[in-house]
Design a protein that fits this description.
With 267 residues, the chain is of the alpha/beta class. It has two domains: 1-7 and 19-95 and 171-244, Rossmann fold (3-Layer(aba) Sandwich); 103-169, no CATH class. Helix content is 31%, strand content 23%. It contains nine helices and ten strands. It has helices spanning 58-65, 88-93, 111-118, 124-137, 154-166, 184-200, 212-218, 236-240, 245-249, and strands at 20-29, 32-42, 47-51, 71-78, 81-82, 96-99, 172-176, 204-208, 221-226, 229-234. It has a six-stranded mixed sheet with strand order 6-7-8-3-9-10, sandwiched between helices. Strands 2-1-4-5 form a four-stranded antiparallel sheet, covered by helices on one side. Helix 3 (111-118) runs parallel beside helix 5 (154-166) and helix 6 packs parallel to helix 7 (212-218). The longest helix has 17 residues, at 184-200. 42% of the residues are buried.
Length: 267
Amino acid sequence: MTLTSSDKDQRVDGRPAPSLRAAHITSGYGGVPVIRDVSLAVGPGEIVAIIGPNGAGKSTLLKSLVGILRVTEGKILLGDREVTNHPPEELARRGVGYVPQVNDIFEPLTVLENLEMGGYLLSNAQIRARVSEVGDVFPLLPPLLKRRADKLSGGERKMLAIARVLMLDPKVLILDEPTANLSPKLADSLLSEHVKRLAGAGKAVLLVEQRARAALKIADWTSVLVSGQTRLEGRPDELLRREDFEELFLGAGTNAPVSPEEDDDKR
């Protein structure tokens, strides 16, 4: 499928051509929409952060992009190819890596076995090469290759989760709450060092993050999702200057603070 002129209308302010694009998608659970008419794009070398209050539909959006949830309206494009509702394993083969918020590693397996599982499409020689390469990205992991994953610290577990997905060298990396349950210091390190480095290597990074300020520091583009719809989008510095930004992030008038352990599936 070829992009039409209307499909290209989100390429603004010098942003790269999209590696992954959602155009006016609606999705949810059991036929009940959770997100409605949501559009976004992420291109190579770009970090796009999706932020918003609890229950905004952020995780639902990511699951729809990677084929876990069915899109009932709109379309998803990988480059110029439509991949709406294609299964997750096909998207993985086409270069989309997805790290969920929970259940992101195989706890009974060692670090090495987790990485080998991540490289299931590769030959043994390719797996060995990729283990070495992802070890260069996360230098704390190689000394832990023989350790069981359930014996890792929170930061080590999250590094392993991302490294496992990197085994297939995806072009697009989708991260759902990568800093959940991490200390502020570890969270800042993961975002400012590792996520930034991956984007610097040319990967398109789409990030859902409840620590909004930390996400805004590293993002090139930000979408604010409220009640399943995009309420604001733009460059982080532009959004921070808006008087209504804080109110929208807190949930269109709610006075409750936002928890860093949000789970959109609770809706």
